[in-house]
Amino acid sequence: MSATYLVTGASRGLGAEFVRQLRGRGHPVLAAVRDPDGAQDAARVGARVVRLDVDRPETFAGFAHALDGPVDVLINNAGIAAADASIGSLSPETMERVYRTNVVGPALLTGALLPVLRRGGRKVVANVSSSLGSLASTAGGFSYAYCSSKAALNMLTVLMHRDLSGDGFTVVSLDPGWNRTDMGGAQAPLDPTDTVASMIELLEHLGPTDSGKFLGYDGQPRPW
């Protein structure tokens, strides 16, 4: 059954792959990007390209109001990392920049889009997290800001689940694994074509009993 998806960070990496494959499956897609001129691939496959800067929450209410139809599934995919892989490399500027994109953006955007999501039939919010945000399994050696922001995003998933599941929402965190993207690098073991296909299959079958879970691209639970 067709469902309308809104994908943030849709101009590259996993976001662009989500758009391509969702359109290939016949789903209407809103490809949210900071610069529509850089989203030709999304437009080419028939997605509706919409301007959205997840670092500017003051624009979210207007963005949501301008959408002329319901959204069934919100994929909070936009995210950034940094080079702060050691305690000595931390800076307030880096922490604030990463948290603004990876935590503040998804939290406030989801809130702004609640009326649009309530009009949809699925009411699914998928926060793209990472195993690096798992307190139980992260190995360290990567961006402090990124890892801790994904742990915070996981907390948002749990809070949103407890707040919204009574209204029929399904809220999950997704771990896409380490993929060969601009962020992941060429040495990453996973092909985003395969992992996104697996995540879409998972998203198409999610229901209220899945709400509040942290799931891997393979459908298996991840430790918090």
The CATH topology of one domain corresponds to: Rossmann fold
Number of helices: 6
The percent range for helix content is 25-40%
Shape: globular
Please write the string of helix (H) and strand (E) elements.
Answer: EHEHEHEHEHEHE
**Overall pLDDT metric:** 95
Would you state the CATH class of one domain? Alpha Beta
End-to-end CA span: 32 Å
Sheet with most strands: strand arrangement: 3-2-1-4-5-6-7
Biggest sheet layout:
7 strands, parallel
**Whole-number radius of gyration?**
16 Å
CATH architecture classification name of one domain: 3-Layer(aba) Sandwich
Structural class: alpha/beta
Q: Give the CATH H-level superfamily of one domain.
A: NAD(P)-binding Rossmann-like Domain
Q: What amount of the residues lies in strands?
A: 5-15%
Low-confidence stretches: none
How would you portray this structure in words?
There is one protein chain. The protein is an alpha/beta fold and 224 residues long. It has a domain at 63-216: Rossmann fold (3-Layer(aba) Sandwich). The protein has helices at 13-24, 40-44, 60-66, 92-118, 144-164, 192-205; strands at residues 5-8, 29-33, 48-51, 73-76, 124-128, 170-175, 214-216. Strands 3-2-1-4-5-6-7 form a 7-stranded parallel β-sheet, sandwiched between helices. Helix 5 (144-164) links the parallel strand 5 and strand 6. The longest helix is centred in the middle third of the chain and has 27 residues, at 92-118.
